[in-house]
């Protein structure tokens, strides 16, 4: 008896795995998916192997060669302190991806837990959670982030938490909508009638079915998080020098806007291309998983 | 019916404003250290400190402190700026008109051009136009606002010299900021208009109108557009908040006076009375925006009035 149950569970897990792998494969199927997905993989690898790829030390100053235009040996030029822009952009990928990724992971975990609990248990808890969520939902993410930075002060930690809080409402709403919709399905009713416990129903039956749209939205949110991180960095409220960050690079570049525009142009292009790639790949994923309608409902 | 809905909707903003003001009130109390140190200049005399303690009731419970604080806000007393050494209310009154001007123009700009672009792309069925609009929408929703602002400055102010780099003198100084904020908005409005028009075009009553022999343009102007406006108004109402968010960034880049640049500068200088005042005003503006949007929506669609009252 136990044997069959565990094989069944394994099969369920395996089929979910296979389903996920298949849909990611399908997202890579189109030309757009290949290009966008390829760029994202390349960027992650660049961030990971930054010390091996970067031609110069990101903090090494060379005042004699300050503000030199793109060319050899500084492919993307240097900033006012003579630091290599390319190396700083490469190291900046580390900051941007890790801050945005961590923030969205926190946001997704908390949002999914809150949303699932609100959707499943309903009642006063649901109303309390949704009131707070709707409150933050109507506010622009930059304003929420600024309130948070005002409390814990500038820096990468507060940037991470600010991004996590700014997107929390989105995940909570989406998860709750999925759970509320699924709860009405016959198979859940059957499971309840068979005497399954809430934790079992939530973790084994509701979440696996609700998770796909949340993951896709999470991926898109990483793109938004990168923009928000860059914006806070640009205001001087994010990464503090000498930590290389795309936003902070552009911030220090504004003083030299006329003299060395490349300090601003290249990090900006990287931010824009990254976010566009994330969006395009997200679109392909939505198509591959066939969840456009489920995203619209929330 | 609409009046009743409006009244109920206004009542709903009361708990929301209380919640927001509590959060903003707590900012100073959650900071490490004595709140007085965050509200007063370093090296102030003991008398000045005692005055502040008496004014905000800092020796009393949090709840009565909050009541005192909100009471002062209602009388227009936002405290004194630490760095700028002036009443925060004065600073806000001085900067608010610039932000409202910029926000209103950007809103108008993005709504008008967004609707035109969306309508064109939904009606022409030209694959090139279609692709252009889709690319524009993608760019508009992904390119960071402050970077776009810097590029526009580089191109139009530095190289072409058409518009001033920064400041707020004359209408020329408004052109680039309005374009920057409006850019993302145009894309969003265009996308929603396009989808709404195409959805509306599939309805049975449109087929009937075609069968009756009405011209394409009559159907578009008299029947399709009014029908498709509802989701557009919804998204426009949400845009009010986002435009204010965008204004914060763009004001800072263009060095324009305004609530946004005041807030960012105050955050950098840890001038907390100013931070609190600006955040409160921005939050109120967002709330007012969504309120107007909701009422406009209810005025257009009886189903919303019915559902909520």
Secondary structure blueprint with pairings:
The complex is a heterodimer of chains A (298) and B (309).
Chain A: H1 2-27, H2 31-48, H3 50-53, H4 85-121, H5 123-137, H6 141-152, H7 156-183, H8 186-193, H9 198-234, H10 246-253, H11 262-289, H12 292-296
Helix pairs in contact in A: 1-11, 2-4, 2-11, 4-5, 4-7, 4-9, 5-7, 6-7, 7-9, 9-10, 9-11, 10-11
Chain B: H1 2-30, H2 35-39, H3 46-56, H4 62-74, H5 88-124, H6 127-142, H7 145-159, H8 172-201, H9 204-212, H10 216-254, H11 259-269, H12 272-300, H13 302-308
Helix pairs in contact in B: 1-12, 5-8, 5-10, 5-12, 6-8, 7-8, 7-10, 8-10, 10-11, 10-12, 11-12, 12-13
Q: Tell me roughly what share of residues is in helical segments of chain B.
A: over 70%
- What is the structural class of chain A? mainly alpha
Total number of strands of chain B = 0
Cα distance spanning the termini of chain B: 9 Å
How big a fraction of the residues of chain A is strand?
under 5%
- Oligomeric form of this entry? heterodimer
Q: Which consecutive residue ranges of chain B, at least 5 long each, have pLDDT under 50?
A: none
| Number of E strands of chain A | 0
Helix content of chain A: over 70%
Kindly name the structural category of chain B: mainly alpha
Number of helices of chain A: 12
Estimate the mean pLDDT confidence of chain B: 80
């Amino acid at each position: 008896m136990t044997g069959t149950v565990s094989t069944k569970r394994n099969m369920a897990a395996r089929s979910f795995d296979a389903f996920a792998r298949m849909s990611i494969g399908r997202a890579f199927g189109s030309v757009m998916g290949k290009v966008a997905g390829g760029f994202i993989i390349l960027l992650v690898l660049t961030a990971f192997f930054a010390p091996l790829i970067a031609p110069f030390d990101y903090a090494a100053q060379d005042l004699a060669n300050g503000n030199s235009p793109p060319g050899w040996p500084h492919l993307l030029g240097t900033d006012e302190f003579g630091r290599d822009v390319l190396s700083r952009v490469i190291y900046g990928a580390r900051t941007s991806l890790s801050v945005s990724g961590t923030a969205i992971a926190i946001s997704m975990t908390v949002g999914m837990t809150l949303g699932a609990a609100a959707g499943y248990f309903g009642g006063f808890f649901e109303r309390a959670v949704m009131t707070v969520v709707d409150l933050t939902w109507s506010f622009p993410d930059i304003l929420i982030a600024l309130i948070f930075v005002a409390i814990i002060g500038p820096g990468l930690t507060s940037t991470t938490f600010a991004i996590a809080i700014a997107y929390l409402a989105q995940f909570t709403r989406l998860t709750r909508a999925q759970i509320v919709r699924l709860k009405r399905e016959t198979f859940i009713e059957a499971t309840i009638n068979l005497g399954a416990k809430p934790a079992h129903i939530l973790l084994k039956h509701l979440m696996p079915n609700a998770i796909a749209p949340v993951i896709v939205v999470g991926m898109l949110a990483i793109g938004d998080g990168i923009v928000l991180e860059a914006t806070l960095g640009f205001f001087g409220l994010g990464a503090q020098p000498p930590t290389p960050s795309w936003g902070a690079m552009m911030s220090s570049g504004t003083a030299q806007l006329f003299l060395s525009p490349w300090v601003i142009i290249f990090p900006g292009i990287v931010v824009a291309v990254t976010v566009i790639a994330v969006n395009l790949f997200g679109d392909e994923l939505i198509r591959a998983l066939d969840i456009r309608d489920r995203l619209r409902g929330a | 019916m609409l009046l009743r809905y409006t009244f109920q909707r206004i009542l709903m903003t009361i708990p929301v404003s209380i919640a927001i003001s509590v959060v903003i009130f707590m900012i100073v109390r959650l900071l490490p250290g004595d709140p007085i140190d965050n509200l007063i200049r370093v090296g102030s005399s003991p008398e000045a400190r005692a005055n502040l303690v008496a004014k905000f009731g800092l020796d009393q419970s949090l709840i009565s402190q909050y009541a005192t604080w909100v009471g002062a806000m209602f009388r227009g007393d936002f405290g004194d700026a630490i760095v700028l050494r002036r009443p925060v209310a004065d600073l806000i009154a001085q900067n608010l008109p610039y932000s409202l001007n910029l926000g209103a123009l950007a809103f108008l700009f993005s709504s008008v051009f967004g609707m035109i672009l969306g309508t064109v792309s939904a009606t022409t069925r030209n694959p090139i136009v279609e692709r252009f609009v889709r690319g524009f929408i993608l760019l508009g929703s992904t390119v960071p606002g402050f970077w776009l602002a810097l590029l526009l400055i580089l191109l139009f102010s530095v190289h072409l010299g058409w518009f001033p780099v920064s400041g707020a003198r004359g209408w020329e100084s408004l052109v680039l900021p309005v374009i920057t904020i409006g850019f993302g908005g145009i894309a969003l409005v265009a996308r929603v208009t396009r989808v709404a028009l195409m959805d509306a075009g599939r309805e049975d009553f449109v087929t009937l109108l075609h069968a009756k022999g009405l011209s394409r343009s009559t159907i578009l102007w008299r029947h399709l557009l009014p029908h498709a406006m509802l989701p557009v108004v919804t998204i426009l109402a949400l845009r009010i908040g986002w435009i204010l968010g965008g204004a914060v960034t763009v004001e800072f880049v263009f060095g324009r006076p305004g609530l946004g640049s005041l807030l960012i500068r105050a955050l950098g200088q840890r001038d907390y009375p100013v931070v609190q005042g600006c955040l409160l005003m921005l939050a109120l503006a967002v709330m007012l925006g969504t309120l107007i949007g909701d009422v406009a929506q209810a005025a257009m669609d009886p189903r919303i009035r019915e559902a909520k009252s």
